[in-house]
What does this fold into?
Amino acid sequence: GPSDTGDADTGDVDSDRPEIAFVSNGIADFWLIAKRGVEQAGEDLEVDVSFHTPQDTVVHQQQILKDLVTRGVDGISVSPIDPVNQAELLNEIASHTRLITNDSDAPDSNRILFVGIDNYKAGRMCGELVVEALPDGGKVMIFVGRMEQDNARGRRQGLIDELLGREYNPKNFDSPGQVLEGNGYTILGTLTDQFDFPKAKANVEDTLSRHPDIDGLIGLFAYNPPMILEALEQAGKLGAVKVIAFDEDFKTLEGIKQGTVHGTVVQDPYQYGYLSVELLKAIFAGDSSVVPENKYVEVPARHIRQDNVQPFWDDLKSKLGKTAEP
Amino acid sequence: MKKLLGIFGIFLFVFVLTALLSDRFLESYNLENLIRRTALLGILAVGVAFVIITGGIDLSIGSVVCLVGCGVPWLLVKQSCPLPWALALAVIVSLAVGLLHGLLIAKLKLQPFVVTLCGLLMYRGITRGFTGDQTQGFGTEYKGLRQLATAEVPLPFVEGFGIPAPCLFLIVVAVLASIFLNQTIYGRYLLAMGQNEEAARYSGIRTDRMVILAYVICSLTAGLGGILFALDVNSAQPGSFGNFYELHAIAAAVLGGCSLRGGSGTIMGVIFGAGLIQVLRNMITLVDFIPSHIEYAVIGAVILCGVMTDETVKRIVRRRLFSK
Amino acid sequence: MKKLLGIFGIFLFVFVLTALLSDRFLESYNLENLIRRTALLGILAVGVAFVIITGGIDLSIGSVVCLVGCGVPWLLVKQSCPLPWALALAVIVSLAVGLLHGLLIAKLKLQPFVVTLCGLLMYRGITRGFTGDQTQGFGTEYKGLRQLATAEVPLPFVEGFGIPAPCLFLIVVAVLASIFLNQTIYGRYLLAMGQNEEAARYSGIRTDRMVILAYVICSLTAGLGGILFALDVNSAQPGSFGNFYELHAIAAAVLGGCSLRGGSGTIMGVIFGAGLIQVLRNMITLVDFIPSHIEYAVIGAVILCGVMTDETVKRIVRRRLFSK
Amino acid sequence: MSDDDPRRPWLEVRGICKRFPGVTALDGVGMHVNRGEVVAVIGENGAGKSSLMKILAGVQPADSGQIFLEGRRCQLASVEQALRLGIALIHQELNLADNLEVGANIFLGREPRRFGLLIDKPRILRDSARYLARVGLKLPPTRLVGSLPIGRKQMVEIAKALSVDARILIMDEPTSSLSQREADQLFEVIRDLSAKGVSIVYISHRLGEVKELAHRVVVLRDGKKVGELRRDEINHENMVQLMVGRQVSQFYLHRPHEPGEVVLTADNLRTLAYPHRSCSFALRRGEIVGMFGLVGAGRTELLQTLFGVTPALGGSVWIDGRKTAVRSPIDAVLAGLALVPEDRKQQGLILDLTVRNNLSLTSLRRDQKMGFLNRARERELARDMVRLLKVKATGEGQVTRLLSGGNQQKIALGKWLSLHPRILLLDEPTRGIDVGAKTEIYSLMESLAEKGITVLFVSSEMEEILGMSDRVLVMHEGRIFGELPRAELSEQRVMRLATGQLPEAA
Ligand SMILES: Nc1ncnc2c1ncn2[C@@H]1O[C@H](COP(=O)(O)OP(=O)(O)OP(=O)(O)O)[C@@H](O)[C@H]1O
Ligand SMILES: Nc1ncnc2c1ncn2[C@@H]1O[C@H](COP(=O)(O)OP(=O)(O)OP(=O)(O)O)[C@@H](O)[C@H]1O
Ligand SMILES: [Mg+2]
Ligand SMILES: [Mg+2]
It folds into this structure.
């Protein structure tokens, strides 16, 4: 069986500094902001930090987590790609080192706590924006990278449930192929692109071809709203169709400023990163008071609209430092 | 010409079918989109056709698209590099990549699959390295440059329809490639050595130079494709930009009549191959009753049925001819 | 044997280097992980080696891994299908897939690249279709079944180290494959027809049957690999599970000495090829000073340098031998 | 001739027809083979010999016609079935798997087995050694076939056919790349088989062999059987008369040439085949030099080294008095050399290109217009060459693969002739070429030499060597073992040198 490496020192030069690793669920700019948070916390709190991005999904994420255990890190914060089925893996990791989750939670595992926000809830917040933008209802299309990712599913379901005026129930699931109607809204479908940007843009273009009378386009992954804007601009329909966004891509923020995007829901990845390190350091030092009763450290999501976009953007830029060019 | 019939038939069939199933398909906005996408993929496919004709393969195309597609906006925006320099650098890098592949394959006799697979891994890794995994784009600037990919050139007598700029690039690339392949001695050399490298060498052909040339052409078109893709979508994520494009490009070339054994292929066929793939992808979204998440199943099945029919028809025709 | 030396040398070099750079590398927990990953990739690679030996290629491996890897938990958990039925169905589907490829390639003479590329598209599309794009997994049940992938078989005299169960599968597969390839007439037929199909046909060998056999073997191991991968990570996402695995498997086979022209390859070499790839990936995370996002650049560069050195050494040795 | 029932032939075919697009390869051909009989089938290039044999061996089906085995009508649908019925074919072109050992190739498809599927390797080693000894090939059965020169491969093919223990053994030009000695060994085997009751169908363009071996000769012309010769009628004149339809007189029209200045000197040249031996010789302007040796003597390797295909291990080459580094064929071409290689299928031709494109491949560079093809010139050149060499094809646009073996050889030769090289290296130039065309090629060599072109030709055919050379270089195990001027040429002298014996004191 696995040897007991979890509590051993890292063997680095600075052996009294804890070593903390942050594992994302994929490659995205969203995670770069989290990375800044991790790095800043490492500097502020004198922790050795490392940042890992799995490229090909669960298999790679599992590989990275296990290799980190081998390396003997003192704490890991992970955004599990498939929290339900990965519970066992997370338990194995948790038995070797201190494990917390961020961005998406795995409540059935032995993780110490969760930093982030419920994606379903964030999805409902996005739905609120759609209702604001299209108070009289209308036809909308959803664009997302991959449907099988936990965060995508949560967000989309929250959005749908909000639009159709359903009860709060994260366990709902609507098949991506079907047209959903209710409450005056028609959700024409969900188009995925597997992170292929030209494909993401093509999805928008084809939607405009197919449904020239569409009222709203909703992009759920950070790069989707910019692709929507590109397609609209080329079609000369910028402003004619409402765009509702998710996450804080700079082009999205620019769009909000100019009024081409109605609004976006932002999480706070910087805080995910910063808090992860801070909490893990405290736990490493034996301070269990940082762990709340419900094991949930909420970093609330926020609505960003034209009225509050500038201060938000300025704050983001200052956090990101010089990597923050458009 | 006869070789073209097969792919042209499949293309036509899918095209007409889609037009029948969706009344939106023939609208000029959609056709423009379709032509732009076909042109972008077609440029990659024409390049890889040269490599396939020599009997090789290039798996690094997607990563070169990523390297150049992320690299140019990175240079322009992040490094404030002047435009001519950035473009020159893109050309030089693509050239160097092709040269590296060609040299390793021709001189050191390494297998093309291995060399370009390492390329696939390396160039993406390098891009992720220098961009720090950050999405690259031209922001709101470089509108003029972006016209190269997004502009539409109006046609003299047609209202409301313009030829997308990438299509002009494709036309130039395709015409040059056709002339090169069919009218010059080097094209003949490529075809000859694709079929029997040894005999070509015995005939006094500098086969290693031809191999290098093919890989250089392929990387150059991949680089051009990379820039155009990036200009078109204005956003390139180093981890995923161009993923699987090599497969699409090779598929287009092979559908268009290039045999992976080497020695055969026509440029027109390759372009129809690219067109077929893009019409199929377009069809999925336009036709209501196809759920979009089974897109790949539909594309795969249509292509497979297409080549099966093509082959069966050819056999029947051949049998008829003989029995007469 | 001589062919094995190259890949073995590169493997050893990378292995020792990693051991020197990271003191954790040789810990039994890490070695167990490494062996398990090598075994999983190795099973796919041994299967595809058969296809490569006939001079073909199978691009559908990753999608078959996805189809079976998502299909089995879907059947068990979502459809409450009894275990034996689910496993039987997995075998039947893999077999049918291989048979389909083989028939189209051998009888209809379609290009292997096209057929299996369509497979790559179709099986993934189908999986996304029947799972509704939802992640599949065994949840917390099927602990017993999952032991097939996660158990460790203790060694008699070694403390704290067990052989991961997939390794036993690999050993069985590899031994069978070795015997098949080297000791049976069918293995010999495969080698002969991979080199010179005409010669094999003129010797009275039913070459089309051999082609079909090779593709069936490849799909069966891909199916087995799919189940084991799914059991190991307990989570399979239809859109991405198994993406690029065909490239990794083919790379392992080619590194291990299979030529894509057909006619050559050894099973041991293929396994070392798989091992090399996995050690490299392990190295990236274990060694501090390699930023993990340039992982692919490192892997690509190491492999390329490896094959370059191998080829150069071979040349020098050859020249030495002759000039004496 | 031992014959159980002379009235009932073992194999008989009637009215066989085979059409290909544009050609009728066989047009109602009938023939029979009796038990233990050696039947030679002869005819010009493209007469349909190989096509007929492929039908008999189940490689391709006939369009119409009947096949009878021991009087019973039968279908030959596949190679496997033909083998089961005891019919084996040695193809005109080599068909071996280069990645397998000699033994494995000999038993390919018919491996002795243990426990059903496992190959009985020891037995393969034992048995294949026996068959190798029978054809006189001293090789370990574990040697990889890919490492053998073409002559030896041909002998492996023969051993392979013998191992079938066939009742009818068809040999399509088995000796085309064998020298006299190996061929003699083969004749020994054929006579032995024939005595044991095995029937042999033998195809060759070397009429001397036919005269020596055949009990009966069947002659094909343009896909039709034009006649048969009984044992006592078999002679050179009759055969040629039937084949060509006219007398071919004056087979070798050799006129001695006045050799000019030295154009090429090889100085201690060492090749990969025999790294420890070196060759030195000189070629003069306008002479025809023959090069003789037994199979594997290293002639091919020497020509290839001269032409830059394989690197020289040592020594130097001087062309026109200048030391010239020939690193690749193009260097050689630019220095005025041309090589017609021995292996036309692998090295001489690109089989899937058209006749025209093959013929022009070498001269594209010369005729280019700033890199562009000169199609008019290409077409003209191909037409001339096809006419000159009397190539039988449906047109210059026909795919070369579809030509008969001999016609392919003509293309392999023609593509170099059009380039007007100054030094022509020919490796077995008349391999598989019929008598008529041979004469043409000889007279071509003559006229080239008269124009001052130097011809160095390798041949395993003694007659050709004796008839055509101004001078003969004899190789033995990688060395130029001796040189004979025309005046001193005789079969015995050449053979002595080739087998490594010093010439008897003058
Ligand atoms: N597969 C084919 N397709 C088209 N034509 C063919 C094919 N095979 C043979 N032929 C033609 O059939 C004719 C007879 O060819 P065949 O090979 O039988 O001649 P051959 O008598 O063996 O000549 P050679 O002495 O040169 O070997 C030739 O004109 C040849 O071009
Ligand atoms: N006794 C032998 N056993 C095996 N290989 C041999 C033997 N003698 C020579 N060879 C091989 O023969 C080759 C030289 O043959 P090459 O083809 O140059 O001769 P050649 O005189 O042209 O004969 P061929 O008529 O067969 O072409 C070398 O590769 C050499 O290793
Ligand atoms: Mg013939
Ligand atoms: Mg020779």
